[in-house]
């Protein structure tokens, strides 16, 4: 569809995703004006000095006149932030977010919004292990998937407009239910992060002299986990607290599978190990074929 | 030290590491002649057609006249291979390997060697998820660590010569005991691989329609695990079977830590999660500072 730019886009939280969105929106000609709301003075100053946005500050009144509002704050903060913005949101404004959990965001945000606001939760499956306004780049969303989970009451025209905006930034958009999103992401994202945090934590607790060697010999596989385990702590705390059931279910399955492999190692059952390690190669081939490697 | 080239280097097993060694040895001028022994006819043909080696085949007599022999086969095969080579090994020849486990290799190889062979176990901490002769490249060992675990009976001159050869290929060499090696690698390499294989296996067992979505949304963290879990199945089967105690001990520690995090998620203890996720960032900074990222 042909896409007229938004008049005023408010980005709430100008970290890695927020700053990337500012750059990508600008690059795609999707916004006449971009403003940022952030309660961290350093972020505000950095966003302004980097020229990411036209205005920035910690006053919710920045939402005044916005026709697109994007919440880029930890999942646990979305409800409170939406409540502060509510008095400034005009009917017809599109309000979306980029959180890694969707049911909890719907639960917290929907009840505090004034009537007429088009609330369309979203989640771009992209990111890096870096944080802050200087970590952003316009290409972050290119070729990556973005999931939208509009409720039944959302205006289809608003959903189509938001979808077109994501597509103009290079994303592949899929629409699904918030419940389904949370289940799929529990295995593709939340569980991998939980495991990575755990294994890096286990290494952190080793005797002092071993720690230096863990760093020295990390190329053996460990370093890939440390990259994931360097992600933003507050963001991930909120993900786990807000997608508890799905994460614990997937963790339960992992537990069982780990028990089977541990037993195979203990009793010297090489056939089981070899078979298991062979089947896992297939998924890698699928990811390479899908150009998501 | 100044390094005179080896007359004839025999590489046993011309896969990723073997082919990279052939290219790196050649590039550094470390070998007058390089020959490969491999029981897979396709590997032999490929090694010859790629010009990796001067001769190749499946006849142990290729070891005749070699002054350096490098075993690049799965850990579980080292003992059998060494026994086949034994009749052709002259006193003074340096025999080393590249296996990810060291105590088991010493246990299996040392008893079958004729007197006078300088057996110096080794382990370059480098690799990719690709396999076979065409996967090799001369720069694989550059800037990476290589561990040597000579026994007390090894001739210091032979150890120094092998160390110098690795350094000429760009490696950073450390000498330690086989027992210590196996403990350090259990946490930096073996446990991460076990976990990656498990989590990818768990995803493989999901309902059919979820599997496609796991691939589609793998950028959320999962894809990093699939890369590790695409490593050679036989090699890794042998690693786990041959470093059982250390791997199961580290797995036990991981289990405890995972239990603590799962409990924090279940009871909604955000403070514990945040604290844990913050400390794990420090190790990543250490790896970046050590130029192993």
Descriptive overview:
Two copies of one chain form a homodimer. Chain A is an alpha/beta fold and 293 residues long. Helix content of chain A is 50%, strand content 13%. The first copy, chain A, folds into two domains: 6-177, NAD(P)-binding Rossmann-like Domain (Rossmann fold, 3-Layer(aba) Sandwich), CATH 3.40.50.720; 180-289, Orthogonal Bundle (6-phosphogluconate dehydrogenase C-terminal fold), CATH 1.10.3660.10. Chain A has helices at 16-27, 41-49, 78-85, 103-109, 156-168, 178-204, 208-216, 222-228, 233-242, 244-267, 270-289; strands at residues 6-12, 31-37, 55-57, 68-71, 94-97, 118-119, 122-124, 145-148, 172-175. In chain A, the strands form two sheets. In chain A, strands 3-2-1-4-5-6 form a six-stranded parallel sheet, with helices on both faces. The first copy, chain A, has a three-stranded mixed sheet with strand order 7-8-9, with helices on one face. The longest helix of chain A has 27 residues, at 178-204. The model of chain A has no long low-confidence stretch (mean pLDDT 94). At the A-B interface, helix 6, helix 7, helix 8, helix 9 and helix 10 of A face helix 6, helix 7, helix 8, helix 9 and helix 10 of B. Chains A, B: It comes from Elstera litoralis. Chains A, B: Residues 7-293 form the Prephenate/arogenate dehydrogenase domain. Chains A, B: Belongs to the prephenate/arogenate dehydrogenase family. Chains A, B: It is an enzyme of class 1 (oxidoreductase).
